[in-house]
């Protein structure tokens, strides 16, 4: 009635295996078939309930889901939480990574469990600490950023008041570089998980800009050179379907041209 099969260009879901399987089995085929340039000329949509009830089988309609994309923010979060997690604690940075994050965790745990400890941090730093959430990597990044925003004197006082081990100079240097290098990744995640201004046409430009920002930082880093390489390779690998997607390319071309000047 509404010719919706010609209007829906793609469907975006989370990365759940149930969605992936459904679109793999019932989605449009990418192969070019006779009768249509993209193999979609004869494609039609039918009510799922009708199919399940066994009705409408003689009408010749074929149930077909539109092209499918996994959620870009979920995929980028996988890079930040999984690929990055495997890349950071390697080589000479392994011990430094674990020691620095363990001391940060001690501060977060004390501030989370004790009202007096939280008030002490607010009194010293004039701010509230962020407690990381295991689900989204951004929360860990923001929590680290809060800690490194304190001056050396403030951080030393916080550790003393909370009775936790103090961060050493090389651990602070590591955390500062962590916050600096991964800032573009955190900003890209904030954009792609937005609810009001996130469109299909923003995905490819955001990823390309993120890769460039990370590459630009590589000559100036001390600890994160291999991490940057790992993240860029993971973007190319995990977003391969996005970069080759006809729908994503068309959406990018038809979107208003813009520059992600705010992406650090």
Automatic annotation (TrEMBL):
<dbReference type="InterPro" id="IPR012337">
    <property type="entry name" value="RNaseH-like_sf"/>
</dbReference>
<protein>
    <submittedName>
        <fullName>Zinc finger BED domain containing protein 4</fullName>
    </submittedName>
</protein>
């Amino acid at each position: 009635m509404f010719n919706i099969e010609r209007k829906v260009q793609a469907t975006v879901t989370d990365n759940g295996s149930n969605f992936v399987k459904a679109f793999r089995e019932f989605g449009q085929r990418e192969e070019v078939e006779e009768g249509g340039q993209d193999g979609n000329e004869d494609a039609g949509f039918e009510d799922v309930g009708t199919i399940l009830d066994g009705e409408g089988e003689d009408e010749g309609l074929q149930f077909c889901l539109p092209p499918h994309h996994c959620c870009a923010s979920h995929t980028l979060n996988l890079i930040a939480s999984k690929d990055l997690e495997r890349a950071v604690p390697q080589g000479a940075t392994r011990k430094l990574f674990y020691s620095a994050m363990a001391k940060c965790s001690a501060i977060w745990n004390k501030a989370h469990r004790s009202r007096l400890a939280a008030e002490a941090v607010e009194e010293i730093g004039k701010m509230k600490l962020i407690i990381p959430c295991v689900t989204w990597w951004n929360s860990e990044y923001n929590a680290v950023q809060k800690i490194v925003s304190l001056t050396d004197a403030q951080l030393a006082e916080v550790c003393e008041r909370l009775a936790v081990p103090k961060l050493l100079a090389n651990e602070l240097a590591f955390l500062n570089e962590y916050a600096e290098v991964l800032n573009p990744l955190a900003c890209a995640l904030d954009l792609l998980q937005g609810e009001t201004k996130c469109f299909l046409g923003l995905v490819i430009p955001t990823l390309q800009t993120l890769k460039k920002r990370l590459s630009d930082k590589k000559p100036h880093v001390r600890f994160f050179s291999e991490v940057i390489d790992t993240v860029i390779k993971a973007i190319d690998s995990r977003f391969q379907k996005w970069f080759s997607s006809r729908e994503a390319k068309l959406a990018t071309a038809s979107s208003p041209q813009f520059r992600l000047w705010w992406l650090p």
